[in-house]
Amino acid sequence: MSDLEKKDKPKYKTGLIIIIIFIILTIIELIIFIPKIKESIEKSGVKEIVSKKNDEISSKNNETLTLYYINIEGNPVEYSSTIEREYDLLHDTFEVLIQSPPKEVLEDFNVSYIPSGVKLLGATKAEDAIYIDLSKEILNSINLDLAYRMLESTALAFDSEAKFVLLVDGNVYTNNLSNSTF
Q1: φ and ψ at residue 71, rounded to 5 degrees
Q2: Which residue range is the domain that position 143 belongs to?
Q3: Least C-beta-crowded within 10 Å: which of 3, 17, 39, 104?
Q4: Cα separation of 25 and 124, whole Å?
């Protein structure tokens, strides 16, 4: 072995020994101080504050929706439903409305005239109008006038002064019931 190789070996051993000592001391400190840190956190009440904030955040995502279904006489009947909000309230409301009605609606002998397969393409509230854009499957309703009445009543629950505009695949759908009052 040359003199250079002999001089380099002790440096590697010294560095390795320092790293091992550092790791051992860190483990000892963690063993000693982790229980004290946990105790301090519990005494400070931080856990309760964080869990309370998480509960508040999750409850803010829960929204109560007003939905309208049609009764035997052909009139809209109001129902409330609570959901965890994903988008904006208007969009989520119509996503729920175009799905199959909940059991309680059917138990009260009320129905939905929105056929299965209808997709919500858009839901927008402008200054004086609420626009709901549905896929063309809405035209397959067994009673399009009552389907329109359901949609209109639900939309006007957001703003009774607004005009309701139904779009089918982006085209304005005209309905002679749009000026009726309930």
Answers
A1: -90, -175
A2: 62-173
A3: 3
A4: 61
Q: How far apart are CA 166 and CA 158, in angstroms?
A: 15
- How many structural domains is the chain composed of? 2
Q: Classify residue 131: in a domain, yes or no.
A: yes
Same domain, 68 and 106: yes
Q: How far apart (Å, rounded) are the C-alpha atoms in residues 73 and 109?
A: 10
Q: How far is CA 26 from CA 51, 59, 107, in A?
A: 30, 41, 65
Are both 48 and 76 inside the same structural domain? no
Residue type, 46: V
Task: Kindly give the confidence (pLDDT) of every residue in the chain, 182 residues in length, as a single tens digit, with 9 standing for 90 and above.
Answer: 555 555 555 566 888 888 999 999 989 888 888 888 788 777 777 777 766 666 555 555 677 888 898 988 888 988 888 777 677 888 888 988 888 888 888 888 888 889 989 999 988 898 889 999 999 999 988 999 999 999 999 999 888 888 999 999 989 988 654 443 33
Whether the pTM exceeds 0.85: the reply is: no
In a domain, 182, yes or no: no
Give residues with Cβ within 8 angstroms of 166, minimum separation 6.
Answer: 132, 134, 148, 151, 152, 172, 173, 175
